[in-house]
Design goal:
alpha/beta; Aminopeptidase; ten-stranded mixed beta sheet; 24 helices; 35 strands
């Protein structure tokens, strides 16, 4: 066969294969945009593409959701590239190290992180279809990675609800039921977490599995497809201020380049859009910022619609916005992104290498010290992000995060340096204060990990050499023979899980409310004491050994209950920890996010059972069956519901109220809460003339606290404060403030207070002096625990979690 005939023959085979690639509409059996596709249908379509074009599509299942749905990405490229995929990946990663000469552009597009922002998954199917057919030329020097649905559980929750309740044909009237999702909406995942705020913290299964794969690629471009309110036009890059200082000029420049390419297509169609507003690049745990801090040009694209839009809705200006419109917009920006990336592959590779060159940051090493369990928890997060660290016994000088708190040079210290591939990410996560070039931000403004994990820290201006090996935490049991009791410390979530494990196995545990000394060992308040006498008829020592090995606990056994100093084990100061039956309130006006934080905490972090009581039948429930009721953040409670809860507390129940719920309790005479308000005469007066109308947004932020860290004082003689030192760094999320309780204040802000990191408006700050953080009071035979600041926020403020555990097991 002659050469031309061979070429024609293989061209024919290629075209024949392409003809087998069905469009989404052909494969699904309905016109794309005429209904919402369930997740399994989307997966089936991608599997069809792989079967029809195996030389250009490769699927990879990287995990599964809490509800068991598959998490999958598709690699799309030319046959030559796909057959050489791992070499392309290695060459790309070597480029970050200053090695090799890669030529391909790596574009990663993530769809449907918010389940009810459901158009993007539909758009992904049309996008990949055209990349394989009419736009296949873009793949010659580009590897496209598509995650068609980051949040399948949320997506199917929305799609199943919508398909049940939509009109036939669909109703565009915004008042119709199909435009009003119930509690809980499809936005979050199974545990009601916002996966778009979890990229850095990795509290959720979906995030952990995705980041493991993402780190193997570190793409040049990452797009996170979203939806916003029905009446908003399309948003694309460039992003708004503030932009974090580690973002390079090139990353900013290429956002403009991409935005101009999108605008070209939108202008042609007469579609409305906006840029440089609202969506900034600061908070590190978004789907645009996290990739950006790892070398990508990270972007958010926002289409108007979200869960309200359904298949079609009348907007405020009288237009009809359809699902087909929304698909067209996301499909256009997706292809435009690949197009402009393919045209700039050489520059992308050059600038990617430049991004990873060492930077001359002010601080080059972050040195941390504290409870070994907290160090271990932090290093677990660093391992997940492939951030290198080591340990040193050297004396370290530098900026001290907590002024006046020097480090103990006799113990090992964790060292995390910016002198590594992930150096920019290290700076972002560890820097004492994030520089804000604009105080109008979309999210929290402080997250520094030393504060979040409750560790002493020093930021050093030089590289601190460190050993790679970590001090090993291992189970140990001393003096176990003929033990009267076993004692262990109480400082961390590891200790809390150890306790929960014992209680679930019906082992009785006590704790001390005053320090004691035994055989020259000191034990602080809250130490766990397991006595043989409390646990007759069981092999208690082997059960303790088993639990100790599971949680790597150091346990001390004693042959006597008589202490050298303090109160003996038979004293009323050594109290039994009850095995509480816990319920959490849900539904109604409850915050789905805070409810999810609590639910996830019990089931995935503490590993302790919790019952969920829904608002719809709450008043028919016998609360006497429960020892503890947790009220997540909520806007209001019906009068009869609140009266029922108060009666239950008076009869001996324990109520834990969090965040905005305290506003609901404030003003009720049965609660001692008293909100702090600022009198008009003390409010800031900037001028004798009215403020300009266009400055109103900046005037409003004076009333706000946008996720700032404050240094609180802790009364660690209070059971809520067991396991803590005299201070605690709290993450404050609003200007809400309440006066100290007359009795029972466990953590509070002093009279003069300012944030140690993050933004607090001038008016909001005036309310924070002498304000309550955590406290408790008795009501009848029961207890009410107030948590002004949410210690479980997004599951990442590790050092706050023990306050919540103390509320469960220690406080009465």
């Amino acid at each position: 066969m002659k050469i031309n005939q061979i070429i024609i023959f293989f061209l024919f085979l290629h075209l024949a294969g392409a003809q087998d690639v069905q469009s989404p509409s052909e494969f699904l059996g309905y016109e794309l945009g005429s209904r919402f596709s369930r997740h399994h249908q989307v997966i089936s379509y991608y599997e069809h593409l792989e079967a029809a074009a195996p030389d250009r599509v490769k699927l990879y299942r990287y995990g599964e959701t809490y509800e068991g749905r598959p998490l999958m990405i598709a690699y799309i490229s030319s046959p030559e590239n796909l057959s050489n995929l791992d070499n392309i990946r290695q060459d790309h990663l070597n480029n970050a190290k200053g090695e090799g000469s890669p030529e391909k552009a790596i574009v990663w597009m993530s769809y449907n992180v918010h389940g009810n922002e459901s158009v993007s998954t539909e758009a992904s199917m049309q996008t990949i279809y055209e990349l394989l057919t009419s736009r296949s030329a873009l793949l010659e020097n580009t590897v496209v990675i598509i995650d068609p649905c980051i949040n399948p559980d949320g997506r199917d929750r929305y799609v199943n609800w919508y398909n049940q309740f939509k009109n036939t044909p669909y109703q565009t009237d915004p008042n119709s039921k199909e435009h009003h999702e119930p509690w809980v909406s499809g936005r979050p995942n199974h545990y009601m977490f916002d996966l778009n705020r979890d990229w850095a913290w990795l509290t959720q299964k979906e995030s952990q599995q995705r980041i493991k794969l993402f780190t193997q690629w570190l793409p040049h471009i990452h797009v996170d497809f979203h939806e916003q309110s029905v009446n908003s036009p399309y948003y694309f890059a460039p992003a708004a201020e503030p932009l974090h200082e580690v973002i390079t000029d090139w990353q900013k420049e290429f956002q403009h380049t991409i935005g101009k390419n999108h605008a070209k297509y939108f202008d042609k169609e007469g579609w409305f859009y906006f840029t440089k507003e609202r969506f900034d690049l600061l908070y590190p745990s978004y789907g645009d910022t996290y990739p950006t801090y790892n070398g990508a040009v990270g972007m958010t694209y926002e289409q108007g619609g979200s869960g309200r839009a359904g298949l079609g809705i009348i907007t405020a200006v009288g237009d009809t916005l359809t699902l087909k419109d929304r698909i067209a917009h996301h499909h256009t920006t997706g292809l435009s992104t690949v197009e402009i990336s393919a045209a700039n592959a050489d520059r992308l590779n050059k600038e990617f290498r430049e991004f990873y060159r060492a930077d001359n940051f002010q601080y080059k090493s972050y040195v941390l010290q504290g409870d070994p369990d907290k160090i271990e928890a932090l290093t677990g997060l660093l391992d997940a992000h492939e951030i290198r660290y080591g340990f040193t016994d050297k004396t370290v000088k530098g900026y001290t995060y907590e002024e006046g708190k020097s480090m103990d040079n006799s113990t090992s210290k964790l060292v995390v340096s910016t002198d590594q591939l992930k150096g920019k990410m290290v700076k972002v996560l560890f820097e004492p204060k994030t520089r804000l070039n604009d105080s109008l931000t979309y999210d929290i403004t402080a997250w520094s990990l030393p504060y979040a994990y409750g560790l002493k820290a020093v930021a050093a201006k030089n590289i601190i050499s460190a050993d790679a090996s970590a001090p090993q935490q291992q189970f140990s049991l001393e003096d176990a023979e003929n033990a009267y009791a076993w004692i262990t410390d109480w400082n961390s979530m590891k200790d809390a899980r150890f306790l929960a494990h014992l209680l679930k196995n019906n082992i009785k545990v006590r704790f001390n409310d005053e320090p004691f000394t035994l055989n020259n060992r000191s034990f602080d308040r809250g130490s766990l004491i397991i006595t043989r006498g409390d646990n007759p008829g069981i092999d208690i020592q082997n059960m303790i050994v088993s639990a100790g090995e599971t949680y790597n606990k150091s346990i001390y056994a004693t042959s006597t209950g008589m202490v050298d100093k303090g109160y003996d084990f038979g004293s009323s100061h050594v109290k039994m920890i009850e095995k509480p039956k816990v319920a959490v309130y849900s539904g109604g006006s409850t915050s789905t996010l805070n409810f999810g934080e609590i639910w996830h905490f019990f089931e995935q972090q503490l590993n302790y059972p919790v019952s969920v009581l829904d608002d719809s039948y709450f008043n028919r429930v016998d609360l006497g069956a429960y020892d503890i009721l947790v009220l997540p953040e909520l806007r209001s409670l019906e009068t009869n519901t609140l009266e029922k809860i108060k009666k239950w507390v008076r009869d001996g129940g324990k109520l834990i109220a969090i965040g905005n719920t305290l506003n609901t309790l404030d003003g009720d005479d049965d609660f001692s809460l008293e909100a702090i308000e600022i009198a008009d005469e003390t409010k800031e007066k900037t001028s004798n003339t009215p403020a300009p109308f266009n400055n109103r947004e900046r005037e409003e932020i004076k009333q706000l606290i946008t996720g700032a860290v404050f240094k609180a004082t802790v009364d660690n003689t209070h059971p809520l404060g067991y396991g803590y030192g005299p201070t605690y760094h709290t993450l404050k999320l609003s200007d809400m403030a309440f006066k100290w309780l007359h009795e029972g204040t466990a953590a509070y802000l002093p009279e003069t207070t300012r944030p140690v990191a993050g933004f607090a408006g001038s008016e909001a700050l005036k309310k924070q002096g002498e304000s309550l953080i955590f406290g408790s009071e008795n009501m009848g035979r029961g207890t009410v625990i107030y948590m002004v600041d949410n210690p479980l926020f997004r599951g990442f403020w590790e050092n706050g979690k023990l306050f919540f555990v103390n509320a469960l097991f220690m406080a009465d």
